[in-house]
Amino acid sequence: MTPTDRAADAARPSPDSAIEPVPPPETSVTREPVVAQILHLVWPALAYQGLFLTIQLFDQFLAGRFSQSHQAALTTANYLYWFVTSYTVVVNAGATALVGRFVGGDDLAHARRATGQAILLAIAFGALAAVAGLVGLPALISTLNLEGEGAAHAVAYLNPLAVLLPCYMIEVGGIACLVGAGDTRTGLKVLATVVFINVPLAWGFSHGTGPFPDLGFVGIAWGTGLSHAVGCAYVLVVLARGRFGLKLTPADLVPDSDLIYRLLRVSVPAAIDSVSMGSFQLVFLGMINALGETAASAHGIALRLEALGYLSGAAFATAAVSFVGRALGAGRPDLAARGGWTALALGGSMMTVMGVIFFFAARPMFKSFSPENDPTPVIEAGVPVLRLIAFAMPALASTIVLTQALRGAGDTRVPVLFTWVGFLGVRLPLAYILTRPDVGMGLFGAWLAMFVDIHVRGAFFLWRYIGGKWQQIKV
Questions:
Q1: Is 14 domain-assigned?
Q2: Where exactly are the transmembrane stretches of this chain (predicted)?
């Protein structure tokens, strides 16, 4: 055997070495402690959720100077805007999951390409939603038992938001890609800018202050919509300059059918879930609107206050979706599972604390947002439901955090069934029974149905996560 032959034979793997598994690449998601990573991801996400809630509460505060019919219109408008924008998931779910897998596997070229395709989808679906919203709003509102002045106010409020909806889609789609890459700080900076601009715009347009025209109630919506247009521009500038390995170029915006298919394969089931939930929520709202303007106004305020608990769960959910996707991309399903449990434990603890606050401070909290002209009926209707939902915070944490943990893994099909069972099997039929005049439970009966639904779905998501099948899903 020549020296060359011996060298070649030494380089050739032995039978034993050929079957040894190749260890997954060592990345930041596998090197650093899980709790530290979750906390690092969550504080910007928590601040982001707080700023988003600030916009909603500020809008609710501005609406407080108007009549009860305006309050009811704002509640319906917020439901409808949430319904129309809920299908942003058709971009966000796939973007976060796919970018997370690519970044976790250290494939930044495909991560950038997937980001470009997500922006393309955001533009297309945003334009489609804007047209559908402008054409279909009057007919949709008429089906929700909101009549007269309240219906007219709701349509007028939603029109500017529909016009500017593509900007919002691009904003949240770009942020979803950055979250997949492990960046939760940019979203915070974007929304801080949005809030900074929204406050003077919404105030100015609704009051006619300084150079702003007096648009009254509709001015609140113009302030919100225009501020998100600025947020859209901010996100595009960040992606063009490059952040966390994502640097958007014109070449990344050329349609790629394979990546678009992979994005939609994850996102479409999640969007069906989200839009289904939005549709069911509209039916639920119709039941509440049928109870009268006082119930509708109290319901809207209670939802805004409940969001103070929801935001901490949503922040830990953002941390979970980012961590789970990257851990799976790095070939560490065990680490992904640990990250989801950590996010649930920490987020659930914070939500439980907020539940205690809801229970003991419900009345003063409600007084801050009730109509100035006649607050007592709204307060008396709303305080009991806020105290009730305080006891649902742990179950709600399970639903919120584990939904996103599963989406980070690309597990978006089975959770659709949980939504359908929770709403069609529990919330809607139970709310119909409890709000009937002969039962007489009114708004409290509707929220009791929601309370039961949250516990049922929370248990389902816990069962799915414990099962572990999500760890084998390919995206």
A1: no
A2: 38-59, 79-99, 119-141, 161-181, 188-205, 217-240, 308-329, 341-361, 381-402, 414-434, 446-466
H helix and E strand count, the chain: 19, 0
Tell me whether residue 22 is in a domain.
no
Q: Are 224 and 194 in contact (CB under 8 A)?
A: no
Domain that holds residue 166: 32-467
* CA–CA–CA angle 423, 427, 429 (5° rounding): 100
- Predicted confidence at residue 28, as pLDDT, reads 65
Q: Which helix (H) or strand (E) holds 175?
A: helix 165-180
Per the CB < 8 A criterion, the answer to whether 9 and 314 are in contact is no
Long-range CB pairs of 348-354, under 8 A, 24+ apart, other chains included: 348/313, 348/393, 348/394, 348/397, 348/398, 348/401, 350/312, 350/313, 350/316, 351/309, 351/310, 351/312, 351/313, 351/393, 351/394, 351/396, 351/397, 352/393, 352/394, 352/397, 354/308, 354/309, 354/312, 354/393
Quote the strand ranges of 225-346, DSSP E: none
In a domain, 307, yes or no: yes
264 Cβ contact list (under 8 Å, min separation 6)? 90, 94, 121
Confidence of residue 400 (pLDDT cuts 50, 70, 90): very high
pTM of full prediction above 0.85: no
Is the dihedral angle over the CA atoms 392, 393, 397, 400 positive or is it negative?
Answer: positive
Distance CA 14, CA 387 (A): 68
Tokens describing residue 417? 């069934």
* Tokens found for residue 58: 């500020």
**In terms of C-beta density within 10 A (0-12 exposed, 13-18 middle, 19 or more buried), how is residue 13 classed?**
exposed
At 385, the amino acid letter reads V
Number of domains in the chain: 1
Q: Does 16 fall in a domain?
A: no
Q: Which residue in 178, 474, 471, 180 sits closest to 332, CA to CA?
A: 471
**3-state SS class at 26:** coil
Handedness of CA 304, 156, 444, 429 (dihedral sign): negative
CA distance 30 to 45: 21
Give the mean pLDDT of 131-144: 77
Range with the lowest mean pLDDT among 143-147, 348-352, 424-428?
A: 143-147
Q: pLDDT at residue 1 above 50?
A: no
pLDDT band at residue 6 using 50, 70 and 90 as cut-offs: very low
CB 180 within 8 A of CB 100: yes
